[in-house]
Amino acid sequence: MSVASGDERGTTERVLTLLGLLQQRQVWTGPELAARLGVTPRTVRRDVERLRTLGYPVHASQGVGGGYQLGPGQDLPPLLLDDEEAIATAVSLLAGAGGAVASAGEAALRALTKLDQVLPTRLRHEVRALAGSVESFGAGGRTLIDPKTLMTLARACRDEVEAAFDYPSGDEVRARRVEPYRLVASDRRWYLLAYDLDRDDWRNFRVDRMREVSARTRRFRPRAAPDAAAYVQESVASRVYRHQARFLLHAPAATVRAQIPASAAVVRARGNERCEVTSGAANLDFVLMHIVLLGHDFDVLDPPELVERCRDLAAKLLSAAGNDGRRPPGDRGAGSRSRG
């Protein structure tokens, strides 16, 4: 087996760097590329010829505004990634596109577009299946899951075929048959929105809880579906809890969204200066205290009994404020004694 020499490796790395530069900007002059690569313009011309030999359409033009330019993406040769590498790259880019850092998300989307342009047709369909079947809400670090599971579900969404998997329900694990619609990325986890064939209704499933995931051969005709991201967010934030509550906050929606994680509440704008917040909890007092701590004026919309909870809480707070931190009248403290 032959081993590449140091000069050959250096040339390969330089040519790859040149390719990366040509992908970053529409036109580069020869002297600009030579300066960036630390070589002479003659070496740049030779490296451009190497790229052309590999099938990359690098065009050269003379005169003012002229230089080297990479041709249309559809003419680019296949990117040298195997199936698993392409899947892993696509998943990572999609996770980055929904991440907490806006600039990183934009860069991830640009990179995903480049990946789609240069992948072979077979792999391009797989990546587009994932990209076209994913929606998101919120931002942050997500629970790690097997990329193959995501791809299996994405293919099922794309091909409109039933999916099957084992899923925990209470203390047991049950087999589920669904018509998959969309994968939804939240601020922490991935979910599948699907029509549950055994329960005859829409359901969302945490992908990290699924086991033995498979795409079946039975096709289905898509039903009228709810908005995937909105449905999953509302389910995660409220429907899974014993109690649900709605509030009208006297603050802009953007301000409140910055205070509440997307997985904890659904915030809908009601004009420019107000918003509606829907959330759930095992205890109504818990969600009420969280709304109070946001620091905005608010009205209780639902449920009616929460209004009485507000009165009780207000009475306790007023009582505490009325004492102004002092002992109640007649209370000399635990250690005081009367003198006789």
UniProtKB/TrEMBL annotation:
One of its GO terms (molecular function) is DNA binding. Gene3D superfamilies: Winged helix-like DNA-binding domain superfamily/Winged helix DNA-binding domain (1.10.10.10). The keyword Transcription regulation applies. InterPro entries: CBASS_pafABC_assoc_protein, DeoR_HTH, HTH_11, PafC-like, Tscrpt_reg_HTH_DeoR_CS, WCX_dom, WH-like_DNA-bd_sf, WH_DNA-bd_sf. It holds the Pfam family WYL. Residues 11-66 form the HTH deoR-type domain. Residues 320-340 are annotated as: Disordered. Keywords: DNA-binding, Transcription, Transcription regulation. This is Putative DNA-binding transcriptional regulator YafY.
